[in-house]
Write a structure and sequence with these properties.
Blueprint lengths: L16 E5 L5 E6 L12 E6 L5 E3 L6 E8 L3 E8 L2 E8 L5 E7 L9 E3 L6 E3 L16
Antiparallel strand pairs: 1-2, 2-3, 3-4, 5-6, 6-7, 7-8, 9-10
Length: about 140
Amino acid sequence: MPLEGGPAAQVTRNGGLFAQESLDGRKLYFLRPQEAATFDANRPGIWVKSLPAGPEAMVKGTERVQTRYFAISRSGIYFIHNVNRRWILSLLNLSTGRIQALRTLDHRQFGSPSLAISPDEKTLLYTWIEADADLMLVDNFR
């Protein structure tokens, strides 16, 4: 929907979630999660589309991105993915196509997924759950 108001316009043709614009506003990056991947044009991962009416293309190397765990920056795309039951923070350099693993994250479960990078790329924020659950039985509670 235009910022000034008016009718909404369809942007993607095969669906997509969690869209983020490039810093220059010329491209739209969006996610197609594994559960939505029903045909080739809907393969999971991060997809990109030149605005306003360019074709949609999958960003190579982002097939394992987990929900909203990606952030667009000047350097590329920061993303969190799972490799052999380990959560890895990586950076995809959009100029070279090279993926650099930055660090392993010591968390078993992530909360409401989100990832953000500061404009100077010195601070990265993400969410996670630090909780264990126990099942308790309460006798004679009435």
